[in-house]
Amino acid sequence: MGIIAMTIGNTIRNIGFWTIDTIKGGNIKKHYQDILHVMDDPFSKKSIKNRNNLLDKLLDHSVKTVPFYSQYERTNFKKLPIISKDLILNDFDNFKSNKFKARELHKVSTSGSTGIPFLLFINQNKRNRNSADTLYFFKKVGYNIGDRLYYFRLWNGERKSELRRILQNIVKVNISKMTDDFINDLLNQLRKDPSPKCVIAIASSLETLCKYIDKNDVKNLNVNIKSFIANSEALNDYTKESIEKNFNATIFSRYSNEEQGIIAQQKPDNNNFFQINWASYFVEIIHMDEDIPAKPGEMGRIIVTDLFNYSMPLIRYDTGDIGIMELINNEPVLTKVEGRKMDLIYDAAGDLISSYCVYPVMDEYNHLIKQYQFIQIGKKEYLIKLNIDHEFIHNKKLVKNFKAILGSDAKVTIEFVNEIPELSSGKRKKVMNTFNQNYA
């Protein structure tokens, strides 16, 4: 199929999507227009008024129809409790609004990457909002509905995803076994597909792709990819630089979760920070150990209020992630988003250190290592798992590099393995903490 025919096909899909939405009442388009207006200037008087109205309506609804919130005053948002997955799971029915019937709702489930599988319900208006958010943030990176999308994830059966419902031009790339043969076939498939396209992928799957390209010195990757979106995991510098060099395309990190949606995404004009989706969420950074606001530039827990899920309102929901919020160009943005709070690491003195300190050390050995995992297993004990093809002669140097970060009395052990196991979500945790510390 030629480029012209593909372009026509994409246009038809685009028109078809909006036509169906119009027939159904134009709800996604209304949400999309609202997101455009707010995100154009999130802190204008008009946008602030709009978001405050959304928050007031949500709180009104919650105290009237959700048993858990009936004991609280609607007007005092900052005094509402911070809630967690554990709390919701242990009191599930009391978080459900009595306004909705079961047949009106849609199930959303998470894969249990935190160790806690999680299910909740969303109403149709929230589902429409998620669709509009998806369209908006794709558009920001040059992708239009109807274009070809290569979606790297674990595809188990025919589980219907939000993206699949919206975008009917998806190529499903199952990352369960990214062997050399699999990647070679994938690159050949991309070469044979001249259509303009976008890739969305778990970050570690892109790293595996890049390592194959570098190891095999693959050339001529002119495959017409407009942009990459990395989600679910932190994007390291090696993968970012390799993608931009080999594919001549920009890569963006997206911060989202399955229970709420797209919370933030890096901006095209400055991908050193994440623009927060203020149109659909209220985001706070809360102190690591106390329920008080963190200072600007201080690491804290990412707390998100979903302004549109009325069936099970998630108000001041602890995502389990940590990050830093700062003011850039008079707009609060996330300058750092890290993994789960349960996987924070500490140096030998017991001081919290960023998991990002691991990546630069390991980047030096990217050309030698297929996979790695850094685990804190004791107060001063750390384990580095390495999956390699050939002999590794840099043990002493690697241990020395980590002791410079963790402390001279840190005990660092290297273990060689055949595989770093995937989680059920398809992620591979690069940094973990299996030690139950009092200060963790």
Automatic annotation (TrEMBL):
Superkingdom, taxonomy of origin: Bacteria
InterPro entries: ANL_N_sf, CapK_Type1_Caps_Biosynth
Protein name as annotated: Capsular polysaccharide biosynthesis protein
Organism: Arenibacter certesii
